[in-house]
Amino acid sequence: MIRPFNFSAGPATLPEEVLRHAAAEMLDWHGSGMSVMEMSHRGKEFLSIYENAEADFRELMAVPPHFKILFMQGGGLAENAIVPLNLSRGACADFVVSGSWSDKSQKEARKYCDVQIAASNQSSSHTGLPPPASWKIRRHASYVHVCTNETIHGVEFQELPDLKALGSDAPLVIDFSSHVASRPVNWSKVGLAFGGAQKNLGPAGVTLVVVREDLLGHALPACPSAFDYKTVADSQSMYNTPPTYAIYVAGLTFQWLKRQKEGEFEGIAAMEQRNIVKAQMLYDAIDHSQLYVNKINRDCRSRMNVPFFLRDESRNEAFLTGANARGLLQLKGHKSVGGMRASIYNAMPLAGVEALIGYMREFEQKKA
User: Fold this and answer.
1) What would the pLDDT profile of 201-257 be if each residue is shown by its tens digit?
2) Residue that is last in its domain, among 193, 224, 258
3) Which residues are catalytic?
4) Which residue, 258, 278, 309, sits at the end of a domain?
5) Over the chain, what HEC string results?
6) Residue 71 domain flag
7) Are residues 69 and 218 in the same domain?
8) pTM above threshold 0.90
C-alpha cells in the first residue's frame, strides 16, 4: 500500500523507514522489556538513546565543539521568550521581520527587553527580503534575531547574514524551525539557533537549541530554572524530564539522514541537493502555468514551504477536494495568507512532488 503524500507544514511527514522502525520497537526497545515511552530518562537505556541522538545531530550539522546542543520543550513559540530571557541581559535586541514568525518573535521579546525592528519586508507583503546592508542594527544590541525560513509566507534566507561585515558584534540568533537539516549551517555566523522538531526532525514535543558556550550564564533573574540555557546544558538537557519519545524518534531521523546519499553527496549535503531539485520542479510548474502563481521574489523562495494561489480562487475548494481524493493531503494555505501551500520537507520524496505537479496540470486543463 502506498501512503498518501502529506504536505502539512507541521507536524509534518516523517520518513516511512523511521516510522516502521519506531513501530517495531514500540513494545520492547532492544530487548529491554520496555517501550521508550516507559523508560526512566536517567536510566542507562534512555541515556544511550540521548547520547547517540546528540552525537548524530552534532555530526550531521557539523556543530563545532564550542556550541552546546540542548533538547528542550515548548517549541519555537516558547523560544521567543526563552531567548530574550537568556540573551538580552535586560538591554536591547534587534529583529528582522520577514514574515509571521519573526513578527511573533519580536512581539514576545518586548515583554523582556527593549526591541527594535532593524528591517522589515512588510511593505512588500512579505514577498522579499530586506538586504542586510539596509539593516539598522544598534551598536549595543544584545543579539539580532532572524527567522531564516518563514513557514507561512515561503520566504527563505539563501545565505546567512554576516553581522561582523555589517559592523556588529552582536550574536546572530536564527529560528531555523522549518528548514533545519535541509541545508548546512555556517556556524561561524551564528550565536544561537533554535527549531521545533516537528517539521524536519521528528514529532512535536522537542525543540533543538544550539547555543555558543560564551552565551550561557547570562539569564535574567526572572528566567525559570528549566529555561536557563546554562542549567539545561549543565544537566545534559535533563534538569526536568525531557520529551523522551520525541527525542528517540528524532534520533532515528538523524540516523536516517546520515544514511542518505545523492551522487557524491551524503547526509545533509545529499538532502540539500534533493531539496533543490524538488523545489525547482515545483516552482517551474507554477511559473509555467496559466492558473497558478507564486508571489515570492525568486531570490528568496523557500525550498521547504511553497505557497501558491489559483488565479481563479473560485476553484480553490474543487482543487483541494481533488487533491485529497488523490492522496495529496494538507495543501490548504495558512488562514492568514490563503491559497495553497505545499511543504516539501526532507521526508517528502521526489515522487510526492511529481504526483502534485501531475495533479496540478490535470486540474488546470479541466474546465472550471
Assistant:
1) 999 999 999 999 999 999 999 999 999 999 999 999 999 999 999 999 999 999 999
2) 258
3) 101, 175, 199
4) 258
5) CCCCEECCCCCCCCCHHHHHHHHHCCCCCCCCCCCHHHCCCCCHHHHHHHHHHHHHHHHHCCCCCCEEEEEECCHHHHHHHHHHHHHCCCCEEEEEECCHHHHHHHHHHCCCCEEEEEEECHHHCCCCCCCHHHCCCCCCCCCEEEECEECCCCEECCCCCCCHHHCCCCCEEEECCCCCCCCCCCHHHCCEEEEECCCCCCCCCCEEEEEEHHHCCCCCCCCCHHHCHHHHHHCCCCCCCCCHHHHHHHHHHHHHHHHCEECCEEHHHHHHHHHHHHHHHHHHHHHCCCCEECCCCHHHECCCEEEEEECCHHHHHHHHHHHHHCCEECCECCCCCCCEEEECCCCCCHHHHHHHHHHHHHHHHCCC
6) yes
7) yes
8) yes
